[in-house]
Amino acid sequence: AQRDANEPEFLQAVSDVTESVLPFIRDNPRYQKEKILERIVEPERVVIFRVPWVNDRGEIEVNRGFRVQMNSAIGPYKGGLRFHPSVNLSILKFLAFEQTFKNSLTGLPMGSGKGGSDFNTRNRSDGEVMRFCQSFMTELFRHIGSNLDVPAGDIGVGAREIGYLFGQYKRIKGSFTGVLTGKGSEFGGSLIRPEATGYGLVYFTEEILQNKGDSMQGKKVTISGSGNVAQYALQKSIELGATVVSMSDSDGTIYDEAGIDDEKLAYIMKLKNNHQRIHEYASKYKCEYLENEKPWKIPCDIALPCATQNELNQEDARQLIDNGAICIAEGANMPCTSKAIHLIEESNILYGPGKAANAGGVTVSGLEMSQNSLRFSWSREKVDHKLRNVMHQIHKKCLHYGRTEDGHISYEKGANIAGFVKVAEAMIALGVV
Ligand code: NDP
Fold first, then answer.
1. How remote is the CA of residue 81 from the centroid of ligand 1, in Å?
2. Is residue 229 lining ligand 1, measured as CB closer than 6 Å?
3. Distance from first CA to last CA of the chain, Å, rounded?
């Protein structure tokens, strides 16, 4: 911890995992002898680089680029790129560390990584975004490859950015390989990849509810964020018979008591594609707008945080529980603070940790890699079926490792241990590397 003292998000992620995994390691001393925990927290490699580019006014701007190559014991490094002004080494190391366990849980052969830049896509023209992406890839290309490291999207990196990044990689290397996932379906992308994280989140939520003899049908759901994950979590929730009453962005939350239906969702997608703000929704559909607020005060049965890390704190958790929530499942990475997680688990309401609940995105990224290797594309139905099956298997693994002393299931414990075991076994088999 001393070595990483100035990396609070990374320490938070490590401490959350360690809490579940340490007792398990004590019961299995070979993991201790092999120093798996000490090795697994240390990235195999971190690359930090300058990203100079020219804005529309002809001025030079300089951003910082990163790639954290965390663990390649079970496959090539795999994890998204985030473009957001808050990006720093601590945030990317926490995301890469989480990715180790998540990718392991999917059962697919993917190691872990994460990268990105402090570049802000907000209020930038397409031309500026393209020039930035080209400069970013002009350095990143030498560190990635279809058998080495396969980045994808994350906050601020959607279809547009992946297209520009892939275009530049292809141009520099002079070959067409599956080096990025989240590509457009015209140039090697998988069907269902845009939907995968949100759909997977709702499939997983349905699994944990069904395990209690319940379902999404008739439930009132609050969702934060209004980006990729939030949109498709909303779509699948409605499909399974729930009513979704909120969405948000970093400026505020809309509260639509009547429920956001498919037509209203189409409007939100249009807003987002045009880089507009969620408050426009409140004006159009005459619903409440909670400026600078998150959705957690709104009474609901199920809360799905789908925006960013640490967006749901202990007070928010208290409010949700007092309002009768029965389940909180994480679409975002580490949206609940450690104290919030403790409170949720103590209260015995259902908690789906991100590394399990949002693993659908990287699952379909893994399937995109398979399709690229086969030079073939699968139908929507086939990919969706595989996604659903992986989320079912992840749920089973959580049940297997997640039983607590008092007989409850802790999905947090189950996901951390199940994710750990596969990587630890591979690391032991590979020797001290
Ligand atoms: P998008 O960029 O598509 O959307 C992000 C949403 O969250 C936007 O509504 C954004 O609002 C909001 N947001 C971002 N940062 C903040 C902040 N600091 N405070 C408040 N709101 C914020 O990203 P994704 O939907 O792809 O990602 C959302 C979360 O899901 C992230 O935690 C990501 O790591 C995680 N995730 C994503 C996966 C994927 O496949 N895309 C896979 C697994 C996890 P605004 O426009 O105002 O910034």
1. 12
2. yes
3. 22
DSSP string, 57-110: TS-EEEEEEEEEEEE-SSSSEEEEEEE-TT--HHHHHHHHHHHHHHHHHTTSS-
Q: What is the pLDDT of residue 63?
A: 98
The full set of domains in the chain, from first to last, is 42-180 (3.40.50.10860), 194-357 (3.40.50.720)
Token readout for 199 is 């759909």
Local structure of 63: helix, strand or coil: strand
Which two structure tokens, joined as six digits, stand for 424? Answer: 């630890």
Q: How many C-beta neighbours within 10 Å does residue 274 have? A: 8
**Active site includes 114?**
yes
> Which of 96, 74, 78 is CA-nearest to residue 87?
96
Nearest alpha carbon to residue 367 among 136, 240, 196: 196
> How far, in Å, CA of 2 to CA of 187, rounded?
45
Interface ipTM > 0.90: yes
Residue nearest to atom 36 of ligand 1 (CA): 332
Q: CA 413 to CA 20: how far, in whole Å?
A: 5
Q: Is the pLDDT of residue 204 over 80?
A: yes
Q: Calculate how far, in angstroms, residue 279's C-alpha sits from the geometric centre of ligand 1.
A: 17
Query: Are 203 and 181 spatial neighbours (Cβ–Cβ below 8 Å)?
Result: no
Contact 67, 140 (CB under 8 A): yes
Residue 113 is classified by DSSP as E
Cβ(252) – ligand 1 distance below 6 Å: no
pTM of the model: 0.97
